[in-house]
Every structure is written in structure tokens, then in C-alpha cells.
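[audit] Reproducing an earlier prediction to check determinism. Same input, same settings, fresh worker. If the C-alpha cells differ from the archived copy the diff job will pick it up downstream; this log only records the rerun itself.
[audit] input (377 residues):
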Amino acid sequence: MIKVTKRDTMSIIIPVYREAKNLENILKALINEETLEFEKEIIVTVDEPSPRFVKIISKYQNSVTFLISKKRRGKVNALNDAISRSSGRILVFLDNDIKIRDKNFLKTIYKFMKDYDIAEIKKISNRKKILGRMVYYDYLTFSVASYLFYKKLKKSAGINGAAFVLTRKSVKELGGFKQCILEDLDIGYRSFFHSLRFKFIHETEVIVDPPSSWREWLDQRKRWVIGAALWMKDYFFHLKRFAKKNKRLSLLSTITLFPSGLFPLFMLASTFRPLESFVLILLYILVGYFGPFFPIAVLLSYGFTFLLLQNFLALSAYFLVFMFYIYRYAKKINYGLNPFWFFVYFFFYAPLWFMLLVAGFIRVLVFKKTEVRGWKI
């Protein structure tokens, strides 16, 4: 009697809210990839599908499983529902605003998930516009931080939800996705305390569409900072214990993600200005409490940033050291770095993002304002 060995299975789960965005191109790439080593199943979980979405369902219903909800369940519920309907040993989670150009995308993921429990997939941004170029360096610095955790500890401290991987065994051990705003950051961090083996996969990548406007970017970042503040509140003592045990890695990864966090130190080193310092603190409080004040605060904040030019040599040295540090790791994980656009990122975009982060933490931790308009957990 011939024994038939069942092939391994990979489930690709894509959550969608109303509009399909890049879904059809994603499905084509996934369906067309030949995967001889394993079976693949594609699950699209949809909340409140638009009329245009019905055409996609009819076109791909023989190759894709669609889980449709006429009411908005929220991303966490949609993901957990899809997991319960899936059968794969490996679960790949993709947002529907990405593009896949690697013909061996799934095969590359499968190769690494033989030895790991959770993985972050490399992301780059579409760089046709200035905002896309800035988000590209967001992804680069996040990837460097993830790569550092992978090399030093083989553990994850948080993942970006646009593209990542978990084994079914790991999902079961973690109890699925938790009801929170940043479910990806949360499940990545919880994997750390379960000692799940982490891999940063830079041998393949996805291209993520950046926000279409600065207004959309601002709305996205407001959600992120509120979610991050709540996450930090929940895990404060865990984070404190980790930082104490891993001082160098904690400091290095924080500076990697938020280089402008050191700008206030340069201001103090340059000259102590009580009035300017008071106004800067007031800015953070006002933005944290009163969101519409943000545009004015941005202009004033940039004014304070340029006060740092009084200590031009020190600031220039910091920029050059940071750029070469990032460049060193960018080469290892197959990113490019343009000095001019990195300069713009470092001196303009990064301070803006850091200011929004601080203001968001004040909003949540001081004023207890945690609502996120247009978002359902």
C-alpha cells in the first residue's frame, strides 16, 4: 500500500474594509505563483463590501475564499474569524494596499518559516511623491530596528501589520489577536514573552502605498500614536524590565525609530532658553488636547528645531553619524539611501512625527482622550 504524504499548507489572509484598493493585483500575484512544496489557500475577509467589490468576488470565487460581513466587525474580529476558518500551518497576513512583485514571494516566506515562529516581511514605500519618499525612510528605520532584534535576540518587539507571518501553533499559543488599536504591535510584542523565534525576512518584500495626502497621513498617525500610548500603558512594567535588561538594544532601537528625540538635548547643549522651552512644552500640551492646533504647532516646532543651528557642528555630526549608521544596515537588508531625501527626512519629517507622538501620548496619558474617529477595533 502506497502511503500518501499530505503536503504542507499556507494560508494567506487579507482583511478588507469596503474598498478593494490593490486587492485584485495581490490576488493575481498569489494565484499565479507556483508552489509545489506546499498547498496555498487565500482568504479575503471583507467588512461592508462596496458594490464594486462584488465584481471581484464573482471573478475570483473559484480560487479565493471570501468571508463577507455586511456589518463592520473591525480588523481584529475579521482576522480572528479568518484564522478560525483557515487550515494552513503557516499564516501570512497582508493588507490590501500593498503590491507584490516577487514571483517567488510565498516560496521565500515558506523557506524561512521552517525554522521560525513569527516573521516581519520587508516593506518599502511607493516613492513617486514626497510623502512616499518620507514613508520609505519610516519603513527603513523600522526595518533596521526589527533587524537588530532579529540579530541580537531572535525575538520580535513588534511588527508592522501590512505584511507579516505567524505559524498556527504560535497564534494558538498567543490566543489570537487582542482587542486593541494596534493589534500588530501587540501580537509581535507578546510573542517576545512567549520566546517565539523571530525572523526579519528581507529576502523578499512588499510595496506599500503611502497615504494619498498629508491629511490622510495625519489621521493614520493619530491612530498609531493613540494605539502606541495605550500599548505602552498596558505593558509599562514589561517594557521597563526589558529596557533594564537590554539597555543598549533599547536605546539603539529607540534612536533608530525616533532620531529627533535627541534634538531637545542639542537645544539644551546649545544654550538654555527657559521661555522657548516653556513654549515648546505648551505646544505639546495644546496639540495633545486640541488637535486643530496642530498646523500652527508644526510651524513653531520647526522654528525651535532651527534654533539647534546654533550648535551647527554637533548637529551636523549627529546627522552624519546617524546616516552612516542607517546606511550600514540598509545595505545588509537591501534598502537604498539617498542623502538628500534622508536629510529632508531627518530634519523635517522625523521631528514632525516625533512631535505628533509626544502630543499623542499626552492626549492619552494626561487628558485620557482615546477615541479614534473612523476606526473600529
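[audit] rerun output stored. Observation attached for the diff report: Confidence is low (pLDDT under 50) at residues 1-5.
[audit] end
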